[in-house]
Structure formats: structure tokens, C-alpha cells
Amino acid sequence: MAKINFGGEVEEVITRKEFSLARARQVLKNETIAVIGYGVQGPAQALNMKDNGFNVIIGQSKAFPRDWDRAVRDGWKPGKTLFELEEAAERGTIVQMLVSDAAQKAIWPSIKKHLKPGDALYFSHGFSIVYRSQTKVIPPKNVDVILVAPKGSGTNVRRNFLSGAGINSSFAVEQDFTGRARERCIAVGIAVGSGYLFPTTFQKEVYSDLTGERGVLMGCLAGVMEAQYDTLRKHGHSPSEAFNETVEELTQSLIRLVDENGMDWMYANCSATAQRVFAELYKRVANGAETRRVISSCGKKDYQKQLTKELAVIGNSEMWRAGAAARALRPREKAKLVTKDTKGVGGRKSN
């Protein structure tokens, strides 16, 4: 493992120098990786692994034709590399649970019965395992239980792979039945296109992830932008000016500067108010209050219908309607087709 200084604290991480793509292929040469779910993370991880030369199949229910049809369009062949959930789980030796957290609870009984001694059960989020008392996802003792959590959306996992940039991921081993769990875990992490992998635990991953989603992403960014936009509008600023000074300034300028230079040029430290908010948020994640709410909401039969309504409220708000017009005005360069060999972080596009 490489030793890297992160802000004064030395941590050990795995890079491709320590664990090459060739080594990952050797470790997984006899494995069939069954990606369960072709929704958010599934397509990106599956296509990246396929392009990197691994044996991948897809498990996707035909009850969700949009995802099934997308898999077909991406080149997966029904009956050969594309199957219903249970058949894919039966065929796989590494079973990747990449459906939503609520869906994992729903399909777990049908997946569990197909796990064979020595299989690996893979997650990209620690939710189902850490909150097993709520989800009832309790793996049998005779399988490995591993995690690779890319630090980005499925879109960015795929996009970064194709550009050659890769994406950073955390990894963890919850259960090592075969004695090879860690090696298998890292190999899959390299296979999906990770630039580097840093060790964590299932619990730390889910606590940090849920806090981050509800804090910076869904809570802070959405709330702050909406509040600033509304304030500017109430003081007579036009929709285009309010949007440009709020969303465009943040996403097209400030975030990129923070990425390049850090936050010290902008703020000396976090406010006491923000610190109290995040302390309370972390406590709710750790004690299971947030997950009970997620399972209750996402487990309802009309979840997708209700979610669509909620997203429509956001999408149809004046700020984001103004945003659609503003984005259309941005100058665009034609995307370049990246064709890299598989020795790099990314890979070649084969679909």
C-alpha cells in the first residue's frame, strides 16, 4: 500500500502501482461477476469491468422495462449476458448488489438462496449490512462480504473511466470466508475503474456517505441555492441574474476553483451554526433515524410515482426553469472520443 499524507495525517491507500489491472485480471480470471440492477451504479460499473476484460453478466428484472431495455441497448445479450435477477445470482461467483437500498431489502430473500459457499457478496454502499436489523439483509457465514464505493455518481464513474481519469473509491471487507476477500475486493475495485482505493469499514462508509448526501449535497447545496435565488428575486433581480449569480457562479466557477486551490482562500473556518447542524445530522445517521425514514419512504409501492412528483416540483421551479435556459447558452465543445488501451486508469469504449 502507498502512504499518502492527507492534510498532515499519513494514510495507506492502494494505487495501480501496487495492484495493477493485470493483477486484478489474474485474481478474477475464474470469476463471473453478476451485476444485480441496471439503474444508477450498475451500468457504469458493469461496462467498465466489461471494457477492462472481466467476465460480467447483468441481473435485471423485466418488471422494470426501462432498465432492461437500456441494458440491451448497451450491448448485453438476453440469455447470454443479461438475465432475470435470480438466474444472474445463480450464475455469479461475485454477486454485486447494485439496486437501491430499499430494493435490496425487497429482493434479498430471492438473492440469498442462490449464494453458494465461497461466493462473494458485493456492495457499493454499506446501508443494507450496517442497518441489517432494519433491512434483514444478513449474509450467510460461508460467503465473502465486500464493498467498493466509488466516490461519484454512476455517470461520473463511466465518464471518468472513458476519459482515462478514473474515480477514487473506498473499500472494505465485512466477512472473509475464503481467505481471499480482501484480494477479491481490491481486484473488483480496480476492475470498475478506481484511480485509487482507500480502506474503510462498512459502518464508516455508510455514516460518511449518508451524512454527506444529506449535508453538503441534498441539504446544503440545494437549500443554499434556493434561499439565495429567492432572496435575489424578492429584491427585484431577474430570473437570469438570480440564477447566474447563484447556480452558475457556484457550479461553473467557484467549485472548480475550490477543486484546484482549496477553500482557505474563501473561508477561514466553518461557522458554529453549520457545525451544530452537521453534528446533529451525523447523530441521526448513526442512530438509524435517517435509515428508518429512507426504508419507510422508498419501500412504498408508489415510491417512484411520489418521487417523480417531488422532483417535478424542483424541476418546475422558476430557478431550475431559468437554469435550463442558462445552460443552453453555455458554449460547448464537441466531446472527444477517448480510445485508451486498458493499461490506463480508464479503458476503451466497446459499446
Explain what this protein looks like in three dimensions.
The chain has 351 residues and is an alpha/beta fold. It folds into two domains: 2-200, Rossmann fold (3-Layer(aba) Sandwich); 206-328, N-(1-d-carboxylethyl)-l-norvaline Dehydrogenase, domain 2. Helix content is 51%, strand content 15%. It has helices at residues 21-27, 41-51, 65-73, 85-91, 101-112, 127-130, 132-135, 154-163, 181-191, 202-234, 239-261, 272-286, 289-298, 303-315, 318-328; strands at 2-6, 9-15, 33-36, 56-59, 82-83, 94-97, 120-123, 144-150, 167-175, 194-199. It has a ten-stranded mixed beta sheet with strand order 1-2-10-9-8-7-6-3-4-5, with helices on both faces. Helix 2 runs parallel beside helix 8 (154-163) and helix 10 (202-234) runs antiparallel to helix 11 (239-261). The longest helix has 33 residues, at 202-234. It starts with a strand and ends in a 23-residue tail after the last helix.
Which SSEs are present, and which pair or pack?
Elements (H helix, E strand, L loop, with lengths): L1 E5 L2 E7 L5 H7 L5 E4 L4 H11 L4 E4 L5 H9 L8 E2 L1 H7 L2 E4 L3 H12 L7 E4 L3 H4 L1 H4 L8 E7 L3 H10 L3 E9 L5 H11 L2 E6 L2 H33 L4 H23 L10 H15 L2 H10 L4 H13 L2 H11 L23
Helix pairs in contact: 1-9, 2-8, 10-11, 10-12, 11-15
Largest sheet: 10 strands, mixed
Look at the structure and give the mean pLDDT: 81
Give the second-level CATH assignment, the architecture of the largest domain.
3-Layer(aba) Sandwich
In what order do the strands lie side by side in the largest sheet?
1-2-10-9-8-7-6-3-4-5
Number of helices: 15
Assembly level = single chain
CA-based shape: globular
Radius of gyration, taken over Cα atoms and rounded to an integer in Å: 21 Å
| The top level CATH class name of the largest domain | Alpha Beta
Q: Residue ranges: pLDDT <50 for 5 or more in a row?
A: 264-275, 332-351
Helicity, as a percent range: 40-55%
Strand content: 5-15%
Number of domains: 2
CATH superfamily of the largest domain: NAD(P)-binding Rossmann-like Domain
